[in-house]
Amino acid sequence: MVALQDYLRSGAFAYDVNNGWLPEPGTDQVDAFLFDKRVGRCEHFATAMIVLARTLGVPARLVSGYYQGTFDPQYQGYVSRANQAHTWVEVFFPGYGWIPFE
Question: Each residue of 13-67: pLDDT tens digit?
């Protein structure tokens, strides 16, 4: 899994938070990312890693959430903004459980 993560981080793919492209109708998003676009946001990278892991027979899942926002004393809670959203991968290792990957 570290090798897959390193491959996606190798510079062969560009991370661009402003690039929210969608594949052409009838085109698989993972194929488009890996073989054509080679640029995307966290959900493109995470989805590609999950598909690659599963082709190796390794259980993997997609996780989405938010970074902890800033505390707002007026509401006595944390405020998270859309730009704090993130998607990552978790891989299951017997005896260890679900381990996160970026």
Answer: 999 988 777 778 888 889 999 999 999 999 999 999 999 999 999 999 999 998 7
8 A C-beta contact, residue 91 and residue 59: yes
CA distances to 34, 36, 69, 74 from 44, in Å: 9, 12, 24, 37
Please report where in the chains the tokens 């640029």 appear, as a residue: 39
Tokens of 9: 């981080």
Segment 61-87 shows an average pLDDT of 88
At which residue do the structure tokens 């990552």 appear?
88
Q: Which is it for strands 60-66 and 85-93: parallel, antiparallel or unpaired?
A: antiparallel
